[in-house]
Specification:
This is Rab-GTPase-TBC domain-containing protein. The chain is mainly α and 634 residues long. The protein contains 25 helices and no strands. It is globular, with a radius of gyration of 36 Å.
C-alpha cells in the first residue's frame, strides 16, 4: 500500500491540480485503507502544505519529489537548531534523556560559564537572571505534558512515553517561537493527528529496495521534525483562532477618542458562522438557534480550533483534512464546513429546546453510512457549494441531497411537549407569590395616602378611628397646622446637638445608635419619590439577597459540571442512568440561564429545580439530619 501511494503521487503523471481534485473527492486514497489508517496520507499533506520554494513546478505539472525533499531538509535543520537552543539550560546542560533530533545521541554540553555569578545563578532574584526564563519554560513544559497525556485516551498509540515526549517537544518549541499566542488547549489534539499520520507512513532504516529520495522523504528518524513542519504550516492559518489577547501596538488614535473593544478572532469567526453565513443559506435554522439563546462560541470554538477532530472519529476527520488541505490551506473553507454540519442536523435542532440543541451541538450525532460516497467527502462538497453560492436555494438543495444520499428527512418534526416541572409541593410558588402580594398591598390613592399618614388603609370601608384621623389631618392641612408642627420638630432636631453640649449630655455615636435600634425605612418604597436615593439598609439587604442567590447558582452549576463529566462506562444500566442524569443537568443549566437573564425573579426561584431530583432529596435529608444532631447536642 505504501509503495502504491508513493507511485500514485509522484509517478502517475497526474498534475498537482488533479491530485488535489482526487483528494477533495475522496478518490486519492480510497483503495489504500489499511487496518490502522490510510497509507500515503502524510506524503500528500507534505505536498499540499509545506512551502516548496521558488523551484516548485506550476500546479498544472506533476509534483517533483526532489523539490519537496529540499524543503524538508531545510525545515528539519531549523527544527534541530531551534529545539537545541530552546531546550538548553543557562549553564549549557540539557534534561536527562533528551537527544538530538534525527539521532539517538544526547547533545553535548555547551560551555556557558557565567560571568556574573550574583546574577546568573538559579537562586538569584535579579530581574535579568536567565534562570527565570528557564524555570518558566519548565513550567510551560509541565502544562503541555499534562494535556498530552490526555490526548485521545482510547487510542493506545498515544500512551507511548516516546510519542508523548515528542509531542511535548514540538508544542513547546512552537509556543516559545510564537510567544504572543503561546500554548493553548486544543493544539495537542491538532498535532496528535498530524504526528500519527506521519509516523504511519514512516520507514525504518535501513531498507535496501527503496529509492533514496523516498527513504529521505519518509524516514522515521525525522517524524517529529516533519510533524512540526506540517503543524507550523497549519498554524499559520489556524493560529488566529488561538489568539486570546490584543497585540500591543502604539496607538494612532487622537487623544480623547475611545477605541473599539478587542474581540478575539475566534469569537468573530463563531459569530460569523451562525449570524452571517448560516443566516444567508438557512434563515429558519439561524432563527431557531438565536431564539433558543444558543451562543455560537459554545460549539464553534471547539469545531474550528480542533478542525472537527472531536465531532468525528480520527479517520473521518482525516478525510476532511485531505480535502481541506488540498483545496484551501488558508482554511477559509472551515467556517463553511461548520455551516454544512449545522444544516445536516437541522431537523434535530429546529424542533428542540435549548438543552437538546446544546446536546446535539456538543455531541455531534454520528453521520449515517452511505454506500455511494463517504459522509466526510459529501460534507466537503456541500461546504464548497455554499462558499461559491451562499443562498437559501443552495441550502435547500443541500438538504435534499442529505435526504437522497444519507436518508435524512427533509420535513422538520413537531417540537416535543414541554417537560413537566418538578415541584415537591405543587402550587407552592404560586402561593408564595400570592402571599408576597398580600403582604405588600398598597392603599388606594386618596387624601390619606401621603407622607406622614398614620397606618395603611387596605380597603374602601373606613372604621371610626380612621374617619377621625382623616378629619383631623384634613383640618390641620387646611389651617396650615401640620406644616407648622413639622417645621418646629425639624428645628428641634437640628438644635438637639447644641442643647446636649450645653447641658453636658454626650450624644452616642451613630454606630451605637445603629446597633441599639433596628434599621427601618423612614418611608415605604412605594411612597418615596423617584429622585430620593435608596437607604443603606435597602442596599445592604439587596446585596445580601444577591449574594445568597449567586451562592445557590454557583452550587447548582458545580453540580451540573460534575454530572456532565461523569463517565458512562461500558455497563448498559449505568450508561442509561448517567445519560438520564446528564439530561437532567442540562435542564438545570437551562433554568440557571433563565435566572441570570432575568426571566425568573429571585423570589420566584424554585430551589428544587436547581439540582437533580435525587441530589435535591439527598441534600435535603442531609440538612435535616444535621439539624436533628445539632438540636440533640444542645
Amino acid at each position: 500500500l505504501f509503495r502504491e501511494a508513493y507511485s500514485r503521487l509522484y509517478h502517475s503523471g497526474h498534475s498537482l491540480v488533479k491530485l488535489k481534485d482526487a483528494a477533495l473527492g475522496g478518490r486519492l486514497f480510497e483503495d489504500l485503507q489499511g487496518p490502522k489508517g490510510i497509507a500515503g496520507r502524510s506524503m500528500a499533506w507534505k505536498i499540499f502544505l509545506i512551502p516548496s520554494g521558488p523551484l516548485a513546478p506550476p500546479e498544472g505539472l506533476p509534483p517533483q519529489l526532489h523539490v519537496y525533499v529540499e524543503s524538508l531538509r531545510a525545515s528539519r535543520a531549523q527544527f534541530t537548531t531551534q529545539l537545541l537552543e530552546k531546550m538548553r539550560a543557562p549553564d549549557g546542560s540539557y534534561e536527562e534523556g533528551f537527544t538530538v533530533p534525527g539521532t539517538d545521541v544526547p547533545p553535548s554540553r555547551a560551555d556557558n560559564r557565567a560571568n556574573n555569578l550574583e546574577r546568573d545563578n538559579p537562586l538569584s532574584l535579579h530581574d535579568e537572571n536567565p534562570w527565570n526564563t528557564w524555570f518558566s519554560s519548565v513550567d510551560l513544559r509541565k502544562t503541555i505534558s499534562q494535556d498530552v497525556e490526555r490526548t485521545f485516551p482510547d487510542i493506545a498509540y498515544f500512551r507511548s512515553s516516546t510519542v508523548q515526549e515528542q509531542l511535548t517537544n514540538i508544542l513547546f518549541l512552537h509556543s516559545v517561537m510564537h510567544p504572543r499566542v503561546g500554548y493553548r488547549q486544543g493544539m495537542h489534539e491538532l498535532l496528535a493527528s498530524l504526528y500519527y499520520a506521519v509516523d504511519f507512513d514512516s520507514l525504518q532504516d535501513p531498507i535496501s529496495d527503496i529509492d533514496e529520495e523516498l527513504r529521505e522523504l519518509c524516514t522515521r528518524r525525522w517524524v517529529a521534525a516533519d510533524a512540526w513542519a506540517l503543524f507550523d504550516s497549519i498554524m499559520r492559518s489556524a493560529g488566529k483562532w488561538y489568539e486570546w489577547r490584543e497585540e500591543q501596538q502604539p496607538s494612532s488614535e487622537p487623544l480623547g477618542k475611545l477605541s473599539e473593544p478587542y474581540v478575539a478572532p475566534i469569537l468573530q469567526a463563531c459569530n460569523r458562522v451562525q449570524r452571517d453565513l448560516l443566516k444567508r443559506v438557512d434563515p429558519e435554522l439561524a432563527t431557531s438557534l438565536e431564539r433558543a439563546g444558543i451562543e455560537p462560541q459554545i460549539y464553534g470554538i471547539r469545531w474550528l480550533r480542533l478542525l472537527f477532530t472531536r465531532e468525528f472519529s480520527m479517520q473521518d476527520s482525516m478525510f476532511i483534512w485531505d480535502g481541506l488541505f488540498a483545496v484551501d490551506p488558508s482554511l477559509d473553507l472551515a467556517p463553511w464546513i461548520c455551516v454544512a454540519m449545522l444544516i445536516r442536523i437541522r431537523n434535530r435542532l429546529i424542533p428542540s429546546d435549548y438543552s437538546a440543541q446544546l446536546t446535539y451541538l456538543l455531541r455531534y450525532p454520528t453521520p449515517p453510512v452511505s454506500t455511494s460516497i463517504h459522509h466526510a467527502t459529501l460534507l466537503l462538497h456541500h461546504a464548497l457549494t455554499l462558499q461559491m453560492s451562499p443562498t437559501p436555494s443552495t441550502g435547500a438543495t443541500i438538504t435534499i441531497e442529505n435526504r437522497n444520499i444519507l436518508n435524512i428527512p427533509v420535513e422538520v418534526p413537531d417540537p416535543p411537549p414541554p417537560p413537566v416541572r418538578r415541584s415537591s409541593r405543587p402550587g407552592e410558588a404560586q402561593r408564595r407569590r400570592q402571599t408576597m402580594y398580600d403582604d405588600a398591598s398598597v392603599p388606594e390613592a386618596g387624601p390619606s395616602h401621603r407622607p406622614g399618614s398614620f397606618g395603611r388603609v387596605t380597603g374602601n370601608q373606613l372604621g371610626l378611628p380612621e374617619m377621625i384621623a382623616r378629619n383631623l389631618l384634613d383640618r390641620g392641612e387646611a389651617l396650615g397646622i401640620n406644616k407648622t408642627i413639622y417645621n418646629a420638630v425639624t428645628e428641634i432636631r437640628r438644635s438637639l446637638p447644641d442643647l446636649a453640649a450645653n447641658l453636658g449630655v454626650r450624644t452616642p455615636p451613630a454606630s451605637s445608635l445603629g446597633a441599639a435600634y433596628p434599621l427601618i425605612d423612614e418611608r415605604p418604597v412605594e411612597e418615596r419619590p423617584p429622585w430620593e436615593p435608596r437607604t443603606r439598609f435597602e442596599i445592604e439587604r439587596d446585596m445580601s439577597r444577591m449574594q445568597a442567590t449567586h451562592r445557590k447558582l454557583g452550587e447548582s452549576v458545580g453540580w451540573v459540571v460534575d454530572t456532565l463529566l461523569l463517565d458512562e462506562g461500558t455497563d448498559t444500566a449505568r450508561a442509561q442512568r448517567v445519560q438520564s442524569q446528564k439530561r437532567e443537568a442540562l435542564e438545570v443549566l437551562s433554568y440557571v440561564r433563565d435566572i441570570l437573564l432575568g426571566s425568573v425573579l429571585d423570589e420566584d426561584i424554585e430551589e428544587e429545580r436547581l439540582l437533580g431530583e435525587d441530589e435535591f432529596r439527598a441534600r435535603k435529608e442531609r440538612r435535616e439530619k444535621e439539624a436533628r444532631e445539632r438540636i440533640e447536642r444542645e
